[in-house]
Structures are given as C-alpha cells and as structure tokens.
C-alpha cells in the first residue's frame, strides 16, 4: 500500500534560459579563451527549486513569467520535461524571457554573469492565483515573494485557508519588511541574515542570534546556509539542528547550488524528514548538483541521494537547544 501523497508545492518567481561555459580562467578585455564545456540550461531560483522537487517526488507547479519568444518556450519545455506543471506561467509579449550568459572559471571557482533585467511580477490572477491558493506550500524567491504575500494576505482577510510560505532569501527580497510573520520557512544565507539585522557576519554568535531575532519577528522556522560550512536550522522553543556540507563530490561548478538547496530542503520537509535529516538531504543534494556545469542536470533523485548518504554515513548532524 502506498504512503500518503506529499504536499503540493507551487514555486513562484524567476525562470531563465542560460548559456553556460566552463573556462580555466576568465578572459580579459577583448580576449578569447577556449571553453572546456558549453551548455544551454534552464535556471532561476524558483524554477530550479521546482525541478529539484519534481525529481525527488514532490508534486510541484511553477508560476512566473516568460516572453512570447523562443527562449521562453525552451525554458518552459525544460520544466515540463521534468514533470513541473507550467499552466500558471504568464506569457507576456511585452517582456522578454530572462536570459543569462555565464562564464564559470574552474581554476578559481568563480563566475561572471550577464543577465537581462526583469520587472517585478504582477499580482497573481487566474490560473496562477488558483494554483497558489490551493497549494500546501508556496516557495518563493526574491521576485515571487511580493505577489504571493499579497495573495496570502487577501486569503487570510477573507477567512480562507492559505498555503504555508517558504522564502529563498539569499537575495534582497522586495516587500519583506513587516511581513516575516507570513513566512513559515525563512531561508537566507548567513550573510544576508546577519545583514538584515545589522550584525557583523563573522562575530561570534551572530548567526544564531539573528536567527532567533527572525523567529521573534514571526518566522516559523529559520535555516541559514553557509556554503562550504553547511547549514543550520532554528525553530521556536529553542529548537536547533546543524549539518556540515557534504564532502567527497568532484565539483565542476557551484552555479545554482543554492537554488538546489532550497528545493531539496522543502522536498525533504514535505516528505516527512525531521530537521537534521532535512539539512543532510539538502546539503547532499546541493553538493551533488555541482558535478555538472549547470545547476540542474546532476540533481539526484531520491534513490541516488539515499545511496550517497548511506555511503557518506548519516551520523554527522548535531541537534540541541537554540
């Protein structure tokens, strides 16, 4: 007999089509270098998180905006091929699809990115609003937060149920001030978390102190990411868990690894993982995604992830009071 169906998630925010090249070093002005690898891939924080969830067995839709151009058609086709529902995507003839050119330098593990700017998303309406209102979770990036928060506020004011809200806060999030109480899962980087509260990121105890301040401001749970130093979670009543970054993975590019972490973290919670397990799950998924130039093609499914975690050993997360 099959287990319970995982909660339905709608990811709202950015989708891009990216041209990627892996080089030994970044070129200087008017210089040409030979690329070791070149790829065309879909990107965007919310869209990539949706791909991760679909690959790990969580029913997911994506809501965002593309232009009526070939880039938009390809970006949506890549999502649909992963099993992501795209029926709520706005096709806007006045706004080109966000596209990027990315050079990743293997020698320095750095990258240069040139991207189209995009305007804020409009208020959610029609199919997009229907999907978000009916979801168990809405996962948003910096572009998706404001329209989702507005819809959540309207639903609450009308006495209707509303989805839980997960926020990728690695970038500055327009519309967040005064609304952290809407956020059930707040996931900044350690740097963006400490910057929000005016703390020095390297000061002893700064990250946990700022996480507790976010909880006091109304966040349901806080997870701070620190790249190669792993991640940590805090929740009310002193709950705390931490997990180191996964090791033993040959890194090609870290492009999109943060977006992958966000998708994997919410997937793990939807699949019933506790906080220590969810952090290990997300850290390992993000690390394994770095085996490829793009942020999606090496994302593991649950079987591959389980095998990796089993080989690595599962006893490396710590829990304790906040």
TrEMBL record:
Pfam families: PfkB. Gene3D superfamilies: 3.40.1190.20. InterPro entries: Carboh/pur_kinase_PfkB_CS, Ketohexokinase-related, PfkB_dom, Ribo/fructo_kinase, Ribokinase-like. Residues 9-300 form the Carbohydrate kinase PfkB domain. GO terms for molecular function: kinase activity. Keywords: Kinase, Transferase. Transmembrane segments: none annotated. SUPFAM superfamilies: Ribokinase-like (SSF53613). Belongs to the carbohydrate kinase PfkB family. This is Ribokinase. The lineage of its organism: Bacteria, Bacillati, Actinomycetota, Actinomycetes, Kitasatosporales.
């Amino acid at each position: 007999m099959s287990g319970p169906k995982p909660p339905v998630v709608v990811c709202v925010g950015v989708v891009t089509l990216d041209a990627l090249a892996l080089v030994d070093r970044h070129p200087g002005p008017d210089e040409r270098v030979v690329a070791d690898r070149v790829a065309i891939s879909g990107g965007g924080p919310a869209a990539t998180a949706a791909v991760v969830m679909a690959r790990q067995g969580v029913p997911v839709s994506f809501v965002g905006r593309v232009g009526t151009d070939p880039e938009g058609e390809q970006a949506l086709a890549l999502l649909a091929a992963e099993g992501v529902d795209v029926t709520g995507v706005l096709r806007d003839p006045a706004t080109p699809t966000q596209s990027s050119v990315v050079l990743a330098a293997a020698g320095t593990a750095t990258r240069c990115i040139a991207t189209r700017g995009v305007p804020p998303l409009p208020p959610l309406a029609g199919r997009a609003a229907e999907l978000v209102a009916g979801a168990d979770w809405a996962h948003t990036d910096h572009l998706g937060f404001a329209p989702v928060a507005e819809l959540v506020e309207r639903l609450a004011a009308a006495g209707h149920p509303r989805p839980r809200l997960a926020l990728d806060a690695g970038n500055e999030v327009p519309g967040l001030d005064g609304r952290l109480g809407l956020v059930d899962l707040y996931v900044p980087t350690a740097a963006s978390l400490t910057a929000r509260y005016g703390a020095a990121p390297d000061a002893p105890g700064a990250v946990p102190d700022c996480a507790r301040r976010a909880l006091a401001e109304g966040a349901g749970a806080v997870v701070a990411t620190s790249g190669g130093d792993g991640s940590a979670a805090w929740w009310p009543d002193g709950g705390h868990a931490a997990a180191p970054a996964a090791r033993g993975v040959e890194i090609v590019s870290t492009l999109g690894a943060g977006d992958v972490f966000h998708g994997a973290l919410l997937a793990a919670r939807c699949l019933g993982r506790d906080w220590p397990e969810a952090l290990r799950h997300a850290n390992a998924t993000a690390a394994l995604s770095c085996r490829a130039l793009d942020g999606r093609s090496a994302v593991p499914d649950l079987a591959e992830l389980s095998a990796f975690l089993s080989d690595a050993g599962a006893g490396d997360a710590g829990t304790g009071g906040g």
